[in-house]
Amino acid sequence: MKTILKIIFILPLIILSQENQVIIDGQFNDWENIYSINDMPNENYEGVNFTSISVTNDNNYLYIRFQTENEIDLLDMEFNGEELYDMEIFIDTDNDAQTGFIPAYNENIGCELGIMFNGRYVWYNEPNPDVQISLYDVGIFPAPTVTSNQFEIAIDLKSEYDGSLLFPNPEIKIQLRDWISGDNIPNINSEIIYTINSDPTEFNSINLDKENENLIRLTAYNVLSNGFNDTERVDKLKNTLFALKSDIFAFSECSNTSTQTVKNILDEILPINTDEGWFVIKKDNDDLILASKFPIINDWPNESIGIKKMHPCLIDLPDEIYLRDLLVINAHMSCCDNDTARQEQADDFVNFILDAKSEGGVIDLDEDTPFVLCGDLNLVGLSQQLNTLISGEIINTFIYGTGGGMNWSNNDLAYASCLHTQLPTLYTWRDLNYSVGSYPYGILDYIIYSSDVINVHKSFSLDTEFMPQKELNNNNLNFSDSRGSDHLAITADFNIPILLNENKNGNIFKKVLSKINILGQFKKSEHHLSINIYDDGSIEKNIILKN
Q: Could you point out which of 125, 308, 309, 381 has its C-alpha 20 to 30 Å from the C-alpha of 1?
């Protein structure tokens, strides 16, 4: 008997989904109240074994989440030369089994769109069969970019190809299959019949303003192959930097770019009005340049005592305002399928931070000195690399030690959720000249920080091609400015512990003048009081005073 499962959103679920807008960021808490279909275990141990699938939508995107028994790579078919995965999402965009591609194993679905994730293309079967188009043509945003046992995908409901709307009807069918294992979800001769509902949920856009002058704004930006030297791209990069107005910039892919070039640009577009102007430093024989409004009092460029593919720099924050200085580690980890090198670099980072937190060795930081790892980490392979950076779990223990907790309190570090300012997606890279087989939007760049001593007030990525004209005008930006690089500039505003006035002591009660949600977005406060007390021996340590 054919089983048809129809997903119906009742009022309580609609309310919950409005409160928990689905965000494509590789985190999954926002799916908790969305109905899921579970699958029986597959006895075929090759390929992918699907365990559940969920579907929802808003007015702009169709969202699909699926889980698997084991970690898989969503965007590559092979690992170490062995073909492991070949997944396809069948979408019958008119709910008509007589149109589109009809798979031999299921005559109940006529597939207009077949999304081949591991091959990185889409079968478009309307009006002609077997046309291959790019993932970008369908507006597909997947996450995470590293291996995982669950993924979430946004598909643009307003996408068009060759003048035709790809989702012309509100009722569609969906089935997910792995061609190697033969596993399907739902199972053979079953499919999801899903009605695309009108949903007034609107993503709360993120403005570019820094909300408080004492926040430290940091931007990491891979400027693509010496972009500051490229006369056709440098103005785009300048416009982006001017709009962000950051206090610290961590640049990469600057191997043939001089510090003077970067300093001249920043002194021109973001003058500090001091004799020194911007402080700029470059790692020897590398592509990493760090620029700061504040003096750089020490750095560790030598990889024999520093970190492979990274450049730690200690920033001298003004003593009259801040309790501690700031260690910024600019990074550009190894690219592409080089998982081995990236793991070594992650292990090396952990070793350096653990050394910094203890007496002796290469570096001794004052206790509770905040630190930030930022840049193009190229995390496109095994998830262990990200896990190492966050948790301190070293894999190459013979070389880099046993590892340990990364925060000053020895728990995990955090990373900023640098969402797009206008879209419910997190991506930091895209292919500017995409074609069939191109990798889709991905999360390659990170801002990872010591979350027990500092916190993020706001974070975002900037892609001008998705910004409305009003926002472009307000920030002196042009539509194509983000095409200055294939990477996006990612930015975080940090609350760093500040000094209190001498007449401020004891427990400090203050109104919550602002708060942020889990997306890093600025929200108006509710009317209540809270207490900020920190555990460094002084209850005055991390009080952030608002004007």
A: 125
HSE-up (13 A, CA, CB side) for residue 449: 25
DSSP symbol at 42 = P
Distance CA 494, CA 459 (A): 9
Name the architecture of domain 218-499: 4-Layer Sandwich (3.60)
DSSP, res 508 = P
pLDDT, mean of residues 155-178: 95
Q: Label each residue of 517-545 as H, E or C.
A: CCCCCEECCCCCEEECCCCCCCCCCCCCC
- Radius of gyration of the chain from its Cα atoms, rounded to whole angstroms: 25
- CA 310 vs. chain centroid, Å, equals 19
Q: What is the dihedral of CA 96, 98, 104, 107, to 10 degrees?
A: 60
Contact 268, 241 (CB under 8 A): no
Strand 326-332 and strand 371-376: the pairing is parallel
Contact 237, 291 (CB under 8 A): no
Q: Which CATH architecture has domain 3-195?
A: Sandwich (2.60)
Q: What is the pLDDT of residues 429-461, one digit of tens each?
A: 999 999 999 999 999 999 999 999 999 999 999
Strand blocks (E) in 1-49? 3-7, 36-38
* Alpha-carbon span 307 to 290, nearest angstrom: 15
Please identify which residue in the block is written with the tokens 């720099």.
Answer: 313
- Any idea where the domains of the chain sit in the sequence? 3-195, 218-499, 501-547
Cβ atoms < 10 Å from Cβ of 462: 25
Give pTM, 2 decimals.
Answer: 0.88
Q: Identify which of 139, 154, 133 has the alpha carbon closest to the alpha carbon of residue 57.
A: 154
Distance CA 419, CA 169 (A): 30
Closest by CA position to 236, among listed 464, 496, 547, 6 = 464
Which residue stretches of 11-61 are H helix? Answer: 11-19
Residues 83, 89, 94: CA angle, nearest 5 degrees: 155
Crossing angle of helices 384-391 and 339-356, in 10° steps, is 0
- The average confidence (pLDDT) of the chain is 89
Q: What is the pLDDT of residues 245-284, one digit of tens each?
A: 999 999 999 999 999 999 999 999 999 989 999 999 999 9
Predicted local confidence at residue 12, as pLDDT: 24
